[in-house]
Amino acid sequence: MSRRCAGRSTSTSPSFRERPLEGSYPYLWLDAKHVKVRSGAHVRSKALVIAYAVHETGVREVIGLDLGEIGSEAFWVEFLRSLRARGLQGVRLAVSDQHEGLKHAIERVLACPWQRCTVHFVRNMHQHCRPSQRGLVAAALRELFQAESGAQARERMGQVIERLEPTVGKVCRLLEEAEEDLLAFYAFPPAHWPKLRSTNPLERVNREIGRRSDVVGIFPNDASVIRLAGALLIEQNDEWLVCRRYLSAESMALLDAANGRDDETENNEREEVMELNAA
Length: 279
Fold this sequence. Notes:
279 residues, alpha/beta, Nucleotidyltransferase, domain 5, globular
């Protein structure tokens, strides 16, 4: 176990949600779940937002948790800025499902590429084709996400669209629009691709939060949501910190080579973009 892991258990932290974030976090996953919360005489649907990240050492962490109104761009901007205020830096790629306003918020606050979850995209495409066509569509999309390189994936994109256009035209149009966001993970080391192209690595803890939320049904207040989710996430975070690295140190060292640039240059460019967005 690394010294960093041994010294950073968060179970006794006075403020898990507000702890400083040290070092760089090249990969960030964002997830939002809708929960029902009582507010006076009304019941409102709110967004429980969770941020997971991989530290530069290859260790996975839960780095953020918040609750707010349904996730508009303003909501996501505020959440991402709170992470930056605590020290989040060096994000090379943000991974999530498609949430309203999130892509623009990532661009404004983090100035990094966005990877749209490929698993959720395939599920969404199933809604635009007949049940008998779903197997064919899923197999064709897998060809794109399991290519040997980004160049090969883009070449296959044209072939897949040409093949599917006669039968599922809407799927093809949506695929063309999402191409850049679906294939963003190919710019990073191949050893990381299976974990970057979707939010599936987080499904186990997300399912448990969802299961317990379903048991509660309607939460009495915001604090009760944070307590339930926070307890589960602190436990998960401690488990991640003491287990083997999520991504090996050797593969993390390939990040700069894969991107063809150094951290100082990249951080300077990000600062310039964020200054322009804030202007």
